[in-house]
Each structure stands twice: as structure tokens, then as C-alpha cells.
Write a structure and sequence with these properties.
Helix content: 25-40%
CATH superfamily: P-loop containing nucleotide triphosphate hydrolases
Order of helices and strands: EEEHEEHEHEEHHEHEHEEH
Strand order of the largest sheet: 6-9-10-3-11-12
Distance between the termini: 26 Å
Number of helices: 8
Number of domains: 1
Length: about 250
């Protein structure tokens, strides 16, 4: 594991008026690591994601990217730093093709004299290749993304983030609404991304999914870091107990 974390959060806190959403969260993410952030509803996971993604600024604390302080003014700043967030809604347009969703806002173009137009063939080829790299065989990259399963759409969003240069991939409850087969597909994709050296922050409340793919586990409770354990140092029952607010042994 690298001595320099890809990302480090130091005592991150966030208040909205008199409401304390985060009261002190700290964790680190190394290259080639899946770091699972676990917590029940109200633990502060959503607020933390939005701070890491550049949607909110912390009220207190520091965010370090490869040991350099970072303060994002917008989500674009986070993206430019190499932090990509895949939210639960995936931000996809169901009637558009898989390839158009893959390149949404960053479409490849070709020129015909003075006219520039979408290079659909190139978009489809790259989409198919990038999906294949994380273990997904697309029938046709031109098919509407709405015809894909929930797991396949999650994998499209993951592959898109990797292709556009993410160093840190934040996944917001990617398996929460999926069946067994689709969940296995997404967890396999996460493993492929880790093997390519990216750092993955996997936000979940499902202990089983976390243990299947995670390397480290940080449990949040009422806006604070309750405990952090490495793989092999904690059982499913212990994680579940920590999520319910039990004091670490």
C-alpha cells in the first residue's frame, strides 16, 4: 500500500445552520484500495459524499489529495482533481444510447469540411472496449441505456469515470436496489477497477457487500468516525454492531 494516500479526510465537519450533519469524519484512501464507508440512515454518508464531490464545502477540517490541501468550489473542481462520483441516480438519459450516455457532454466529433458532427462509430467502439475492460460484454453500444439492467448501468457509469481519468471513484450505494446477479456484476466491476490502481470509496449500509470487496472499513455514526478496521480484522457481526452505534472494543 502506498505511503501517500490518494485522498485523506481530516476531521471533516459540516453544519447547515444549527443542524450538525457531520461532526468529525476522518479516513484515508490508498491507490488500489476499496475503502468501504458504512453507516445507517442519518450517519452522515450523503453529506460526506457531497463534500468529496465538491457540492458542499466543509465547515471544518481538511481534505488532502496526494498530501496536498484541496478545497473544491464546484463539482468540476473535484473532477479536474481526479475524483469522480457515481450517485445512485446515475445521471443517465434512458432513451439515449449507451455510447451517448458514456460520452455525455464530452462526445467525440469528426469533421466534414467546416461541419463538425458526432463520431457515433468511435463513441460506440470506445464504449464497447471500455466496458469489456471491466468485464461487461455489450450486445450493442447503440442500444438505449434504459434497456440495460441496473447492474449494467452501474458498470457503464463506473467505466465512464475510469475512462475520463478518475483516480478516486466514489460509489454511492451502487448495490442498494439490485438483485443477487446484478450485485455480483457490480462488485466484480469494482474489483476490476481496483486492479487498475484506482482508489474506490464504496458507500453502503450492506455489510455483506462491503466484506466481499472491501479492503478497509470505516463506520460512521451520527456524523462521526466510530471505527476503522482492515480486512481480516473485523467480522460481519462486529461491523453490524458498530453500525448500530456500539462502542468499539
Amino acid at each position: 500500500m502506498s505511503a501517500t494516500p490518494l485522498l485523506a479526510a481530516r476531521d471533516i465537519a459540516k453544519q447547515f445552520g444549527s443542524v450538525v450533519a457531520l461532526a468529525g469524519v476522518s479516513f484515508e484512501l490508498a491507490p488500489g484500495e476499496v475503502h468501504c464507508l458504512l453507516g445507517d440512515n442519518g450517519a452522515g454518508k450523503s453529506t460526506l459524499i457531497k463534500i468529496l464531490a465538491g457540492v458542499h464545502k466543509p465547515s471544518r477540517g481538511k481534505l488532502l489529495i496526494e498530501d496536498k490541501p484541496a478545497l473544491f468550489e464546484s463539482p468540476r473542481d473535484a473532477l479536474d482533481t481526479g475524483i469522480a462520483t457515481v450517485f445512485q441516480d446515475l445521471a443517465m438519459i434512458p432513451l439515449m444510447s449507451v455510447a451517448r450516455n458514456f460520452f455525455l457532454g464530452r462526445e467525440p466529433v469528426r469533421s466534414l469540411g467546416p461541419i463538425r458532427m458526432l463520431d457515433g462509430a468511435r463513441a460506440a467502439e470506445v464504449t464497447r472496449e471500455e466496458m469489456q475492460k471491466i468485464g461487461i460484454e455489450l450486445r450493442d453500444a447503440r442500444q438505449p441505456v434504459g434497456t440495460l439492467s441496473g447492474g449494467e448501468r452501474q458498470c457503464v457509469a463506473i467505466a465512464r469515470a475510469v475512462y475520463f481519468g478518475a483516480k478516486v471513484l466514489i460509489l454511492d450505494e451502487p448495490t442498494s436496489a439490485l438483485g443477487v446477479t446484478q450485485t455480483a456484476m457490480v462488485l466484480r466491476c469494482i474489483g476490476e477497477v481496483r486492479a487498475r490502481g484506482l482508489g474506490v470509496i464504496f458507500i453502503t449500509h450492506n455489510v455483506g457487500h462491503a466484506l466481499e470487496v472491501g479492503d478497509r472499513f470505516t463506520v460512521l455514526n451520527r456524523g462521526r468516525t466510530l471505527d476503522c478496521r482492515a480486512k481480516g480484522e473485523v467480522t460481519a457481526d462486529e461491523l453490524q454492531s458498530l453500525m448500530s452505534g456500539a462502542v468499539p472494543a
